[in-house]
Amino acid sequence: MAKPASSNTRAVTANRLRDGAVVFRTVTGGWSSRIADAETASSETDAARLLAQAERDAATAVVVGPYLIDVAEIGGELRPTSLRERIRAYGPTTPMAGVEAVPYL
Amino acid sequence: MYQYDHFDQEFVDQRVTQFRDQVRRRLTGELSEDEFKPLRLTNGLYLQLHAYMLRVAIPYGTLSAVQMRMLAHIARRYDRGYGHFTTRQNIQFNWIRLEDAPDALADLASVQMHALQTSGNVIRNTTADQWAGVALDEIEDPRIWCEIIRQWSSLHPEFSFLPRKFKIAVTGSPNDRAAVRVHDIGLRMHKNAAGEIGFEVIVGGGLGRTPLIGKTIAPFLPKQHLLSYLEAIMRVYNQAGRRDNIYKARIKILVHEIGVEEMRRRVELEWEGLRDGRLQLDASVVADIEQRFARPVYEKLPADSAEVALLRFKDKAFGRWMRANVVPHLQPGYAIVNISLKPEGEPPGDASAAQMDAIADLADAHSLGEIRVTHAQNLVLPHVKITDLPAIFARLQHIGLAADNIGQVGDIIACPGLDFCALANARSIPVAQRISRHFADAKLGAEIGDLQIKISGCINACGHHHVGHIGILGVDKHGEEFYQITLGGSAENAASIGTIVGPAVAYEDVVGAVDNIVRTYLDTRNADERFLDTVRRVGISPFKERLYAAA
Questions:
Q1: Which structural domain, as residue segments, surrounds residue B45?
Q2: Which structural domain, as residue segments, surrounds residue A43?
Q3: What is the pTM assigned to this prediction?
């Protein structure tokens, strides 16, 4: 698969402390398991501000290890540009056969 | 199977209680992640891409039907209905919630299981030959010694902060099935000229970023000195092993840098003060531990079954499975059944809760309640009556685990890779699935014969790619998955590190490349020559030329 063009748009992701689920920092200052809800930043200043807010949530035991990821709007949807982050956002590419997939919380 | 005594049980129960309180304090924010991380890792709990991952220890790969049912219960109740058996004879659950982890560990403790020594810079869970105690070629059951090592190394105060993790493997057979030459310490039991049994001690093997074959530091160590000698090695490593660079911190780097002669000199010097001390193993102590293994009681049976022999010819599928998956047992009338966790096109090493329950039932009905886990990510029913084989095969077909591919092209080792692991650079499981599917469709497995393909999603080499006959290493090239292919590796007696065949290939091209390599082998081999032997005879050039000819 071709690598999407490098993007300056960023979002903040982390793992939720209590269950480890992949979450994204939202526009309302919460955390969502859907990347569509993520707040994006297109300047360095905005990205730094977004990360600083997220780090406060790490300090108060809401999430673990927040960091910035590159995102891009592809086909009208916000998507991470790297394969690693797409796997985090949408799950493993190889679910175990015969096991019912559990929808993300 | 080893049965816990009062001390073992209390120790494991206490750890659950401690961890429950640690988790509570983390969830309320009393503990920061930096404070909590070493505590959770000490209890086998990692944070991976999608969730917490719990790695449960299966000491020397032996477990009871009761324990297997508990693993099924953990999969159902706390995970998504499956588990992943690993190359270290452990099991990993990929979807654990932190808030559930203490309950999961309490459930495990109720059946004498835990997640200790599955993480951190400590002596990890000791691994062994999966056919220990039942193999025809065995000199002595290595698990007694693994258990002694477990008891000595668990929470050893001096070795709780080693420079890096430390892995020990033990084989009691002349044919190494425990990969002892690629462990930090490998122990190979053998007889000396006087007929006494002792250990060849091999040190400084390992895979990862710097793959090295271990070197013999003691050709014959009498059994009573095992722990004092191990302690001497650990002391030398603990003091001289590098702590400045995580990639140079394993004992293999120390042994490589100072040489095995100097390593031996230092170890022997340290050992002088230890050898006749409190670590000397009394025969009575060893006998006590051996007794806790409660040896299986076999029936006196005829060596063969005419009925089963006939069925092998009448039922081709049963015959193929017998040939590939069933091996002789030291007890007449019994067999060792290897269950492949590599059904065509499925993720290697995965088992669903229903499959785990079914295997536990099979073990109760046909294998004296015992199961083994192999470092090749398969399972074993170690004590099966030959006359029960047709019933077992039928049941395995029913649960989708009758693949007749042990040791063949479909029996691929793969780490979890980028689909699950936070360290990975590229995916492993889908590569394994594609290769498996390709050769299953071509119905080539039996014709190709012995062929070990091992896949790792990063240089840490959990998939043992360096010692695969065909090794595949996933790398990240500017955001794209590429795979470096090596040929001629082996973890067995004549252990060797594979040679890189040429430039890495793209994800889409891996199956074609492996097919190309296999075709070269089929065209080049002498009669009955194994893949590995062909590579060793002709070198990599013929493979390389044909693989890159089109490019």
A1: 6-109
A2: 10-90
A3: 0.95
